[in-house]
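Running this now, will post back.
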Amino acid sequence: MKRETGIVTRIEDGIAFVRKPQSQKCENCSGKGSCMFQEHADEVVIKVNNTLDAHPGDQISLKISRQSSGLKQLSLFFIAILALLVGGTAGRLCTRFIAGTTGQLLPVVFGLGAVIISSILWRNYYKRQEKEQPQPIMEKIIRSESQDKHGNQVNLQ
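Update: finished.
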């Protein structure tokens, strides 16, 4: 979980568009496209549910939780090795029933088949996870547009 700050640029249908500096964490985020609305050279605009009734110009604190893509890749590696072992073992058990050259190829075929099937299932699981991942959450309003830089109320009439 990471915390970021940004400035609300506009509000539409209960969604706040928040401009914030682009960080290295944005580049490495596995859910990069799920909240990012626009990307500029050194800034991004992300969409956030306006749960704090923020207004354009407010500076807010955001709580963003994402899974690291490194962990995702490592999980694929371990799943592929496990699938290869399970598939190869299943193929080896089946060689008792099939004799000859065909029987000797079963562990290889079962192992590779298990790797391919598990990789497809893993990919579909993570695509669904990215769609369901939580959006950034407004944590608090740091400075409202109706406050000066010292936090004092300003009458905006």
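The chain has two domains: 2-66+134-143, 69-130. More later if anyone needs it.
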